[in-house]
Structure prediction request, 387 residues.
Amino acid sequence: MVKPARIKISSMMPDWSQLPDELLNLISKNLDNCFDVLHARSVCSSWRSTFPFPSSLLRPSYSLPTFADIPFVSEDLCTLEKIHLFLYRVRTPAAALPSAYFLGGIGRDESEDHMELPSPLQCSVRVKIPGPDSTLMNILDCQIVPLGYQYRMMGWNPEDWATDYRGVAFLPLKKEGGREEFVVLLNYTKNLYVLRSTEMRWKKLKVTSDASCSDLVAFRGRFYAAFLNGDIFIFDPYSLQRTPLVPSEPQRSSKYLIPNGNDELFLVEKFNPFPKCGRIDFKRFICRVSRLDEEAGKWVEVRDLGDRVLFIGHFGNVCCWAKELPVDCGVSVNSILFTNEPGSVTFAYKYGVQTGRVEDDLNCWRLSRQIRVTILNTFPVVALRLE
Prediction:
């Protein structure tokens, strides 16, 4: 009996670099997601040259003078960068395993056009986790949610920078003669410093508050600053004159300012409801949330954030829509997640949580204890594990 001849089938990876230019141009016109563009750039070197790096992920930067001795004039330079923030969900192989998330920024790897890719279809982003090496995380299988942006000072690291630097805010000014002008407000060493692009020189802001600044943001063309003694001021970027903006019921509290894009500005006050009990129990701290009524010039307390979620702590304070978040990310509609809580385990804050204790007020925001969130590390990215 004669055996039938075996047919040899060869499975070859298609050579995507040979795709006609007409099809490449057609593909590029239909990629409206910045991470889809990154995926396309990861195919091969010819695709990277065809698809420009997404402009939404570029980091606009400004060279600024560093600090020297008074009067703060220096020939050395540092960089102010605009960093886009994202929440990355790392898919686990088994549904029963805890979900892992990274909260942080993304930028262009300067060596990406020269790196050798392990496979023609690798789509990855370099995430720096504490350790000797960086980690390549495959973003093809990641769920990625944009969380806004923040400005950050880069390239200057004095020994006291980590403890004395508390944030920076940037505002573009009206262009005169076609030249871009801007003003920067820096929260550093318990003081506020201002720099104008027309002068490129740091000056101490003289009229602020008697206390240190705890939070600083830019919103709708003005600076907003909260101070440890409860003061909140608006600073005009041109005159730098201050306007008080006091909460309806001032509390001795930690204050956080959270812009929702250019649409809304929220104030979250976190405080101990029983300050005279002697022992501080951070798990019983509560929050009050207010929204800025810009026309009336006052804060209005809110009990419902609607479909919004607030992230507060490391990498700045951001607001996003809950419908964009994965269902198991530890926060849901109308909630607040702090990533700077004492310890490594936290929960989201929600309004009207039942505690079973008669003395606890229901008309506030407190820990919900629905999903436990473990903070694995906070620098250079925030790594979260949900259980």
Remarks:
- Residues 110-123, 128-132 have pLDDT under 50 and may be disordered.
